[in-house]
Amino acid sequence: MSMTPLRAIPSLSDYASDIGVATQGLAFPRYAHSSAPPGESVALPSTESATPLIDARNVLLKAGFDPASFREQQIVWGDQDPFQHVNNVRYARFFESARIQWMMSIGKEWGGPAQADKMIRGQGVSLILKTMEIQFRRPVTYPDTLLIGYAPLPPSSEDDTSFQVVASAYSLGTGAFVTHSKETLVWYNYDELRKCSPPKEVADIVASRRLKAAES
């Protein structure tokens, strides 16, 4: 098996710090599965069948993102603006699509396809977006494909009605992260039209996803 050298791969704590999330007490390692110090390259296993998509998935996995959230976003010509790069507004939609996919994976684990469907149709308990902060790192141009991943962060308070997540978009064309997002999600009971504490079953699912990210 050959080794393909890549740039140093930061962890979720790096992204969180980069976009303004408090990282004190986070368990995420800076260089998961690697002894390479900051600034040096990290070698990832590769095979003859390796593709840019496989490489991108490896990078996101090593960074601690939840694979259930991974979504390929094809860039089309109309995503660009007169400045000849993808318009910044587009990224909110890109992240939204990946976030909904991640929500549905939580719903499916919680109660199967029916529960996943309820979560995206505003029935019972689901999640709504409260805040979103996007950081643009590099321009993206057509043609390209982005791989987007999400991961929940440890709770920052005793209030269990909301939690923060981080997300990143990785360009297969340039082999680099191009955009990061920091978001606050709120548990919301659509039947009662108010925020709520999540049922223990689904809270445990999110907590397990968080632990898996920390262990990556």
Protein traits:
about 220 residues, alpha+beta, 6-stranded antiparallel sheet, 8 strands, globular, 4-hydroxybenzoyl-CoA_TE, fatty acyl-CoA hydrolase activity
> What is the end-to-end distance?
22 Å
- List the total number of helices: 4
Oligomer: single chain
Fraction in helix: 25-40%
Q: What low-confidence regions span 5 or more consecutive residues with pLDDT below 50?
A: 1-9, 21-48
Radius of gyration: 18 Å
Mean pLDDT across the residues is 84
Shape by Cα distribution: globular
The secondary structure category is alpha+beta
Largest sheet data:
6 strands, antiparallel
Work out the number of β strands.
8
**Share in β-strands:** 25-35%
Note the run of SSEs as H and E: EHEHEHEEEEEH
GO molecular function: fatty acyl-CoA hydrolase activity
InterPro entries: 4-hydroxybenzoyl-CoA_TE, HotDog_dom_sf
Protein name: HotDog domain-containing protein
Organism: Ephemerocybe angulata
What does this structure look like?
- It contains 4 helices and 8 strands; from the N terminus they run βαβαβαβββββα.
- The strands form 2 sheets. Strands 3, 4, 5, 6, 7 and 8 form a 6-stranded antiparallel beta sheet that branches. Strands 1-2 form a two-stranded antiparallel sheet.
- Helix 3 crosses helix 4.
- The relative contact order is 0.18.
- The radius of gyration is 18 Å and the shape is globular.
- A hairpin with a 4-residue loop joins strand 6 and strand 7.
- The protein is an alpha+beta fold.
- The two termini are 22 Å apart.
- GO terms for molecular function: fatty acyl-CoA hydrolase activity.
- InterPro entries: 4-hydroxybenzoyl-CoA_TE, HotDog_dom_sf.
- It holds the Pfam family 4HBT_2.
- It comes from Ephemerocybe angulata.
- This is HotDog domain-containing protein.
